[in-house]
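Hi everyone, sorry if this is the wrong subforum. Our group has a chain we'd like a structural model of before ordering constructs, and none of us has done structure prediction before. Sequence below.
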Amino acid sequence: MGKIFLACLIVLASVCCKDKEKKGNETAGEGKTQYYQEQYRPQYHFSPEENWMNDPNGMVYHKGVYHFFYQYYPEDIVWGPMHWGHATSKDLIRWQHKPIALFPDAHGLIFSGSAVVDFANTSGFGTTENPPLVAIFTYHLMAGEKAGKTDFQTQGIAYSIDDGETWTKYDGNPVIGNDGIKDFRDPKVFWDTANYTWVMSLVAGDHLQIWNSNDLKSWSKLSEFGKDKGAHGGVWECPDLFKLNVAGTDEEKWILLISINPGAPNGGSGTQYFIGDFDGEKFTTEQKDIKWIDWGTDNYAGVTYNVLPEDYYGDKYDNDPKDERIFIGWMSNWTYARDTPTEKWRGATTVPRKLSLVKNGNDYELYNYPIEGLDKLLEKGDIKELQIAPNGSETITNDNFNQAEIRFTSSAKDFRLIFRNEAKDSLVLLMDSELGVFSLDRRHSGKTDFQQDFPSIQKMPVPELPEGEFEVRMVLDRSSIELFINEGQYVMTAQIFPKEIYTTFQIENDLDSDFLLKNFQVSKIRRTW
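Answer:
Right subforum, don't worry. Here is the predicted structure as tokens:
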């Protein structure tokens, strides 16, 4: 009787979720309903319809569809027992909500992980004609944690043979046990084309472990990395290991993303990266300094869509990412994530970004920049050239800067940009050549008193900016700003909660000479919900 009742509940939940999905598809668009119109609700970033989300999970492309899973608690807007939420998209811009993919079970809650297309059916869960999707995730057994044990995190898998619509847990879970490592989680798996094996990056407290498998079920540990490398101000999380070509060359390097909490350069959560080499067993790097993918406080736990073997789908799908490496992060920070002033939902993601590796002098840098698909949402404004006198300013007005893109090019290294509204909120961006720093001051940007660390000045060193012109691009949503300097060489992401929409944008020239802004453009960003 209990099983029948549980099955009925699952069916009912699935029907409700499908009804919500239908509703979302019918009501998305400008001004049709109040759907996704709550205060601070992102208008073109992904956020759940309701309740709590955090880390992106299981980002996988399959048969023309981008699957996006995420840490989700369906009962409240604060963190709780973790599930995998699920959404799909054809363009990474417009999303359809799907039923919850993975629920907690006797092994524990469903923490972060990844998903792959098992294209050769190495797992045996599908067929070569219908290869399964396989999710790899961390089990977190709360009873074990509460009992003071250290082996409460293990790794499990689940599979789908209906293109991600439904998921079945492997009856041999967990596939990787735990010998007593307290923080042992976040498996990111990819197919190693050189060695014909699955490779897993898995964090273990303050370092990385690398494992491999021939069938996604039986795993062997290969190596460790990082005990003496990188930032160690907090626990390592959400690894991602992948290969990129150096822009404009045939040279290849391996990139390792590691999120860390706390210990980020502006406090709380942040994501560092390493550039090096991977020989099939070990990741190595000669990198001495600590590199951050984003200097703002609100880009954490970001990972990338796995790249399938070359030409796996051929030219069958127009939206095939091929070898592009697409990154999405959680747009928040554990310091105040549970306190932000939203009501129906809590949590959103960054805009999807394309990663590229650039060599500047003798140094390699990982750039991240919005995917081209974001441009399709723009209602582009007129392109102007602005010339601001020494120690002068210019003010531009707009009905809604909180759903807009601003971009320009300049060679100036000293200027101030200020967003304001009628409530006298102000968000201040400052480029300072003497300090070699770009800063974002949100102390007076709107609601900031919900947590003591939220009102802050965030600082980003910009030592390698070009001597000549570079682009400044800002994309703002109801409760966020993402800033990209020199096409993603330097990036800052920050949440903001203005009491009213920003309607003025002031440009101040701190130089003793004219400040010239070329290709200055303000564009509206259409909503996607």
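For your construct planning: The mean pLDDT is 94. The chain is about 5% helix and 45% strand.
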